[in-house]
């Protein structure tokens, strides 16, 4: 996956790329933290402040939930799934054998980061640049995804394991009500993190030659 002999001007570049390579999906997590809650908060705050957004629209909204507050997210998710069982949408057996154990595994972690996008703030920029109006919502989602990735990499660099979940729209209303969040905040993803209790699965790569091209490279 690339030359090991490459030299960078800034040694931090190699460190950054190693952190990127080391980011994995961990499902086995426990409610312990290798760092302080203040350090976790700093990671999330810096992502909110410094991840770029199109036209500096700053549409990402992020909520950090730790300990008992984190557990509430997955209690809400379990309740939502139980509602699907009661409605006949989700088979009881599937819920008990697969869905509920998976949700309880998320609940057993240390924290959850909720990532939202506030699309309503895009009204003025859509009017100003009407020719791009249909692009701003996807741009906002791209910025939010960058925040998700940065927080994921940073948490794992500090010794956490993490996995990214998407339980919208099943839990959106309950989450907004539980934490008194504005209706304009639209939930996109939930990053679950904790101390790893198992190794991640094997990671397979498609051939780089079919995914990357370079032109005009100097000798």
UniProtKB/TrEMBL annotation:
Any one GO biological process: cellular response to oxidative stress
Main location group: cytoplasm
A GO term, aspect molecular function: oxidoreductase activity
SUPFAM superfamilies: FMN-dependent nitroreductase-like
Annotated keywords: Cytoplasm, Nucleus, Oxidoreductase
InterPro entries: Frm2/Hbn1, Nitroreductase, Nitroreductase-like
GO CC, any one term: nucleus
Chain ranges of the Nitroreductase domain: 20-194
Subcellular location, record wording: Cytoplasm; Nucleus
Family membership noted in the UniProt record: Belongs to the nitroreductase family.
UniProt cross-references to PANTHER family, sorted A to Z: FATTY ACID REPRESSION MUTANT PROTEIN 2-RELATED
Listed name of the protein: Nitroreductase domain-containing protein
Native source organism of the sequence: Penicillium angulare
């Amino acid at each position: 996956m690339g030359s090991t002999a490459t030299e960078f001007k800034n040694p931090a570049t190699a460190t950054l790329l190693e952190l990127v390579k080391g980011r994995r999906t961990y499902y086995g997590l426990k409610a312990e933290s290798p760092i302080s809650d203040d350090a976790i908060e700093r990671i999330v705050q810096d992502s909110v402040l410094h991840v770029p957004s199109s036209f500096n629209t700053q549409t990402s909204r992020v909520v950090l939930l730790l300990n008992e507050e984190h557990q509430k997210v997955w209690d809400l998710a379990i309740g939502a799934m139980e509602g699907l069982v009661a409605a006949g949408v989700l088979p009881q057996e599937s819920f008990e054998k697969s869905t509920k154990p998976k949700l309880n595994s998320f609940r057993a972690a240390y924290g959850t980061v909720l990532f939202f996008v506030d699309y309503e703030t895009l009204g003025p920029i859509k009017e100003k640049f009407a020719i791009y109006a249909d692009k701003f919502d996807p741009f906002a989602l791209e910025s939010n995804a960058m925040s998700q990735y940065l927080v994921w990499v940073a948490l794992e660099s500090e010794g956490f394991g993490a996995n990214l979940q998407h339980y919208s729209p099943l839990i959106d209303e309950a989450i907004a009500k539980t934490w008194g969040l504005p209706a304009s905040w639209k939930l996109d993803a939930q990053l679950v993190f904790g101390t790893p209790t198992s190794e991640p699965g094997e990671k397979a790569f498609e051939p780089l030659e079919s995914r990357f091209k370079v032109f005009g490279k100097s000798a």
